[in-house]
Design brief:
Blueprint lengths: L2 H11 L12 H4 L1 H12 L4 E5 L8 E7 L2 E7 L5 E5 L14 E2 L4 E2 L6 E2 L5 E3 L23 E7 L2 E5 L7 H4 L1 H6 L8 E2 L5 E6 L3 H9 L4 H4 L1 H4 L7 E6 L3 E6 L22 H4 L1 E6 L3 E5 L3 E11 L2 E10 L6 H17 L1 H10 L16 H18 L2
Antiparallel strand pairs: 1-10, 2-3, 2-5, 3-4, 4-9, 6-7, 7-8, 9-10, 11-18, 12-18, 13-14, 14-15, 15-16, 16-17, 17-18
Helix pairs in contact: 1-12, 3-12, 6-12
Length: about 375
């Protein structure tokens, strides 16, 4: 396709919502577009990788892969959560192959080079020949693990692969301020409060579906029975995040009237309100008076997305049966969306589909996301 035609297609996405079209099919189905998107969208912004609760104790380490890059999530000796490329600086061997607690050093299984949890290279056995553990050509101070720029907020570990993004606190200052009341301990619910949904779709479709409440009456009739479409409002912040809020969040109650404890210091808005935003590019967040959730979308491939769901509470221990019910309830809700995001992905193979149109009233959050993606790609192509 000619360069001008490609530019025109992105330009159509970035029009005011009344006239805009959505991203073209190729942005969901073409491997070349997916490859470009890695650099233009996912590597150059603050992408979600995991949650800090994946490594709760000092020395905990978890190997992960992000778009083919082997990474290591670790809580170092000072308690700081860090991300390194999970390879030895000697011959590129994978260092950690399964989750573990690092008691001493991170030891390469190939030639036994060892690294501290801060990434520093601490020993190079026999590097200068048998019995000689140093060599003048091997400067350990310059051969520490390659650290990936990272930031933890809302227990979510965000990474900036190419190192070019503005500081996280600057990029997302508005959302941090909007949810400042939730700047307090978030307690992960444990094993029964985390689950993974494997979805056969492009990751962007999961984002844009989550953003809006327009689909609620037909896809989530249970929720819509008390949190109706007219009880929702749009949330848009150009170039940062978008989503929806409800005015009628209904607190889960146990058979004996038990409820989860509330977060401290909430305003009246949060007594019956809840908000659900996608923080670009790939993290979905939800807050209510008594619990929150984080969904990290892992873009496994062009047509496969893993949704890593984590539930959090205001107290370190909550009622076991109520916690299990809450996890089951949210799992049901998120599973109801699977046929939609998979159906939209299949629909992107229809050549007559031109990206679709947006409801100026109902689709503002989704258009905001499309506009952001198109802008990142256009800027990348202009370099």
């Amino acid at each position: 396709m000619a360069k001008d035609a490609v530019s025109d297609m992105l330009g159509a996405v970035q029009q005011p919502i009344e006239h805009a079209r959505g991203l073209a099919n190729a942005h969901y189905t073409d491997p070349a577009h997916f490859a470009e998107e890695k650099n233009a969208v996912l590597f150059s912004s603050w992408a979600g990788l995991a949650v800090a609760s994946d490594v709760p104790h000092v020395g905990d380490a978890k190997p992960l892969t992000f778009l083919g890059i082997p990474l290591l999530l670790i809580r170092d000796r000072t308690g700081q959560v860090r991300v390194f490329q999970n390879i030895c600086r000697h011959r590129g061997m994978i260092l950690v192959s399964e989750p573990k607690n690092i008691q001493g050093a991170i030891r390469c299984p190939y030639h036994s080079w060892c690294y501290g949890t801060d990434g520093a290279l601490v020993s190079t056995p026999h590097v200068g020949g048998p019995g000689h553990n140093t060599h003048e050509a091997i400067d350990k101070s310059t051969l520490g693990l390659s650290e990936v720029r990272s930031h933890v907020w809302f227990d979510t570990v965000f990474i900036n692969i190419d190192g070019t993004a503005r500081p996280f606190e600057d990029v997302h200052a508005n959302l941090i301020a909007r949810w400042s009341i939730f700047d307090q301990p978030l307690h992960h619910g444990g094993a029964d409060s985390r689950f993974v949904l494997d979805v056969q779709t492009n990751w962007k479709l999961a984002v844009e579906n989550y953003c809006e409440s327009y689909h609620l009456p037909w896809v989530h009739p249970g929720l819509n029975s008390y949190s109706r479409l007219e009880d929702h409002y749009n949330i848009t912040e150009q170039g940062c995040y978008s989503g929806q809020g409800t005015l009628v969040y209904r607190q889960l109650t146990g058979e004996e009237g038990q409820v989860f404890p509330d977060f401290e210091g909430l305003s009246d808005h949060w007594i019956s309100g809840g908000e659900y935003v996608a923080i670009y590019p790939n993290v979905l967040l939800g807050v209510q008076r008594d619990h929150a959730f984080v969904i990290v979308l892992e873009p496994v491939s062009l047509d496969q997305t893993c949704e890593h769901v984590h539930l959090y509470y205001a107290a370190p221990a909550v009622d076991d049966s109520l916690r299990a019910r809450n996890a089951a309830q949210w799992r049901d809700v998120f599973e109801e969306d699977i046929f939609v995001v998979e159906g939209m992905y299949k629909g992107r193979s229809a050549p007559a589909f031109d990206g679709g149109r947006f409801s100026p009233v109902m689709d503002g959050p989704t258009h905001c996301f499309h506009d952001w993606v198109a802008g990142r790609i256009a800027a990348h192509r202009a370099r």
